[in-house]
Design brief:
By secondary structure, this protein is α+β, with helices and mostly antiparallel strands. Helices cover about 40% and strands about 25% of the residues.
């Protein structure tokens, strides 16, 4: 569904290179919330309304956020708590995107992170590599990841 939403936004814009990322992310998070029946969590988004992202970066970033949000709801949150929170922010400065994601879940031992061989962990790592992102992860009190990646200007027809 993440990729289909990117294509839908592309068809509704004048550009076949960039998509309005705030619209995409609001649609994506709404879809995830409905799919997971996430009554026990809140997703806060802090994104510039005019921020557009190249399709070659929007797709892996959307898939990454889909995986992170899904993991938070499935594994990190207490289903009886009403204080479950996800926060994602994205800013663009000097040709670089800076992103922060955190959840208020229980967290886990960071040593386990290096030993995880699950499909989800592999997917997160692969998508960060695809974005050529520098990142850091903290897991002591919730899951926190900060990452940055350079803007690319090539169009949707280019090789990624």
């Amino acid at each position: 569904k993440s990729i289909a939403q990117v294509h839908e936004l592309l068809y509704n814009t004048d550009s076949f290179t960039n998509i309005p990322f705030d619209k995409y992310l609001h649609t994506l998070t709404s879809s995830i919330s409905q799919t997971l029946d996430s009554k026990n969590g809140v997703i806060n988004l802090d994104i510039d309304k005019n921020l557009e992202i190249n399709i070659n970066q929007a797709i892996p970033l959307g898939l990454l956020l889909n995986e992170l949000i899904t993991n938070s709801f499935k594994y990190a949150f207490d289903s009886t708590s009403k204080n479950n929170l996800i926060h994602f922010s994205l800013i663009f400065k000097d040709d670089t995107y800076y992103a922060k994601y955190y959840d208020s879940g229980a967290g886990f031992d960071k040593a386990k992170l290096n030993n995880l061989s699950s499909l989800g962990s592999l997917l997160i790592d692969t998508l960060l590599q695809q974005l050529e992102a520098d990142f850091s992860i903290e897991t002591e009190s919730g899951y926190h990841i900060e990452f940055s990646f350079k803007e690319i200007l090539s169009g949707s027809h280019s090789n990624f």
